[in-house]
Specification:
Blueprint lengths: L2 H26 L18 H6 L5 E13 L2 E6 L2 E6 L16 E10 L2 E11 L2
Parallel strand pairs: 3-5
Antiparallel strand pairs: 1-2, 1-4, 2-3, 4-5
Amino acid sequence: MNVSSASKTIYRAGKISLAAACVAMLLSGPVNAQFSGAKRTPDVTTVEQARAARHGARASLKGSLTKEVRMAQYLFRDKTGEIRVRIQRELWRGREITAKTLLRVRGKIQSDVRGRFVNVDYVQVLN
């Protein structure tokens, strides 16, 4: 067996393996899985509840920002009161937000030396 016949044999074996992999992939068909049961609801829906909630509880609050306290930290107000929220710059996505802008913020309740706050992971502009 010379070099050229050996290389042809390897080439054919590679073609067969590739063809077998493609056929197996096509025969497996599409796999669609989706959970259709009850979705997890937030533990906290008002600022009043957030101030009394356990550390790590999920929150979904509807209201507006009243002022910037420090970098990435704001006071958030709804009809039940105010709480501090931490919103990272990436979550703004270039949107301009004023005190009159109605928002929905979602995140987890956390605490530090200044008290309770919501560490926001999602911001939705409602108006």
